[in-house]
Amino acid sequence: HSLKSILPTMAAGKKELLMLENFIGGKFLPCSSYIDSYDPSTGEVYCKVPNSGKEEIEAAVEAAREAFPAWSSRSPQERSMVLNRLADLVEQSLEELAQAESKDQGKTLTLARTMDIPRAAQNFRFFASSILHHTTECTQMDHLSCMHYTVRTPVGIAGLISPWNLPLYLLTWKIAPAIAAGNTVIAKPSELTSVTAWMLCKLLDKAGVPPGVINIVFGTGPRVGEALVSHPEVPVISFTGSQPTAERITQLSAPHCKKLSLELGGKNPAIIFEDANLEECIPATVRSSFANQGEICLCTSRIFVQRNIYSEFLKKFVEATRKWKVGMPSDPSASMGALISKAHLEKVRSYVMKARAEGAQILCGEGVDQLSLPLRNQAGYFMLPTVITDVKDESCCMKEEIFGPVTCVVPFDSEEEVIKRANSVKYGLAATVWSSNVSLTHRVAKKLQAGLVWTNCWLIRELNLPFGGMKSSGIGREGAKDSYDFFTEIKTITVKH
Ligand code: NAD
Fold it and tell me: Predicted confidence band at 12 (pLDDT cuts at 50, 70, 90)?
């Protein structure tokens, strides 16, 4: 299979750098300049990513514009078949893609194999199916001899911008609904993790995706990202990333009144009531705090525990956290790999230092325990899962998104108090509630300011239902119907008979 040949190049590391190319109009095109991409587990440059700009966006817009009439005229059934073939090809290349994702991002190979890449395939498969099941509306006004009905049309060229934490997973979560609905796309993955998007391009022709339907342009946010967002012929932008970038994207798209979907950060609380089943709650909360090195927008970073079980919870939680092994991403016994970049590692560590300076206690992890790594990985961006306590709600560790393996644990007394404290941050993405009292979980879930609430579990997703955040966690939702709404225009037609 074509993707197999990529792996030896990647394994050669320093000697032979992996050179990515843009994919525009069905062709791989070199770029006039490149940026370095690092292997997070060694800190070495192993790949060169095109440093695209306006010129490449112009070319991609042209290709997407040309491809649009034919693609948008195909029936949903025909588009669905293409998406299903793409899902098959991603599944067939699962191992190659998982290895590449793990090397590029620093996540464990186990996670890439069991979550990231299967989900990327599922995204195509899911939208291949869901596109077949939408209906439009029709109403009548007999007294005026009128009937009204709605039609849906694709919006046009969709600009898709994705982050580095779940690279192929989040990119395909945008590409799949956009093309299923008949749009053509220009996608810009994160410059820190571009490899699997480039590998995906190698599968498109075989899947039957016509040239120009999916264009992938690589490079940095300020250069190529802004060129995409500001382009007048790209009327719809779907963005997943940080809140400051969303602010910039909103400003740039305002003059064109673009349709925007913004999936942003979180400061997600876990609320653990005294009647919670700790046997289930503790391992799930360790996972929700530290999975993917804590680099998931849905990760828990504030744990509120009811006071009479606080000491017991804390003791068991720290014990369980200490068992999470940080290691080489390829090590099957590792629960955590490396963080994405040196700059990010330093940022995450700085939060732990700030907490300590404020008088908080660091119970395990950064600055407390020793991290032992093979010689080759000592310049990698590793850090231990870290638990902070005795921290005030006003502390930056309890207010700001850290996006790393750091979680705070604090006690609470009453239901009313904990809801208020959980809601006291600017974000509103996800929350978890642990209790064996069903009416309590429903009551609390309803009052939490979060787009997603999991009770007695974490990160179980039903792709049909809306995904997204409130407050500074974003605008809009993604999911079967929501993505369809976003990637189509609706028109109401009135017929007098
Ligand atoms: P980021 O905002 O720095 O970058 C995201 C993407 O935007 C990248 O492709 C980047 O190159 C691009 N970008 C940066 N500046 C840009 C600009 N001026 N114009 C256009 N594009 C620009 O975010 P990140 O650090 O890659 O990702 C981490 C953030 O993403 C966290 O805040 C995390 O919570 C959030 N996130 C949210 C979700 C969600 O579904 N809500 C999922 C994953 C990650």
Answer: low
Percentage of residues in the chain with pLDDT exceeding 70?
97
Q: Which atom of ligand 1 is nearest to the CA of 191?
A: 11
Which residue, judged by its Cα, is nearest atom 17 of ligand 1? 221
CA-proximal residue: ligand 1, atom 26 (nearest)? 163
* Angle CA 386–390–394, to nearest 5: 95
Question: Which residue among 174, 237, 240 has the greatest number of ligand 1 atoms within 8 angstroms of its CB, and so is best to mutate?
Answer: 240
Side chain identity at 129, as an amino acid letter?
S
- Cα 262 to ligand 1 centre (Å): 10
Q: Going by CA atoms, what residue is nearest to atom 30 of ligand 1?
A: 241
Residues in contact with ligand 1 by the CB-under-6-Å rule are 161-165, 170, 188, 190-191, 220-222, 225-226, 229, 240-242, 245, 248-249, 263-266, 297, 401, 403, 429, 469, 474
Nearest-CA neighbor of 20 among 91, 104, 102? 104
Q: 456 pLDDT band (50/70/90 cuts)?
A: very high
Could you give the ipTM of this predicted complex? 0.97
Quick one: three-class SS letters along the chain?
CHHHHHHHHHHCCCCCCEECCEEECCEEECCCCEEEEEECCCCEEEEEEECCCHHHHHHHHHHHHHHHHHHHHCCHHHHHHHHHHHHHHHHHCHHHHHHHHHHHHCCCHHHHHHHHHHHHHHHHHHHHHHHHHCCCCEEEEHHHCEEEEEEEEECCEEEEECCCCCHHHHHHHHHHHHHHCCCEEEEECCCCCCHHHHHHHHHHHHHCCCCCCEEECCCCHHHHHHHHHHCCCCCEEEEECCHHHHHHHHHHHHHHCCEEEEECCCCEEEEECCCCCHHHHHHHHHHHHHHHHHCCCCCEEEEEEEHHHHHHHHHHHHHHHHCCCECCCCCCCCCECCCCCHHHHHHHHHHHHHHHHCCCEEEECCCCCCCCCCHHHCCCCCCCCEEEECCCCCCHHHHCCCCCCEEEEEEECCHHHHHHHHCCCCEECEEEEECCCHHHHHHHHHHCCCCEEEECCCCCCCCCCCECCEECCEECCECHHHHHHHCEEEEEEEEEC
CB atoms within 10 A of CB 284: 20
Q: Ligand 1 centre from 189 Cα, in Å? A: 9
Catalytic residue positions, numbered: 263
Cα angle 472, 387, 192; round to 5:
55
Evaluate if residue 14 carries a pLDDT over 90.
no
Pocket test for ligand 1, best of 193, 245, 402 (most atoms within 8 A of CB): 245
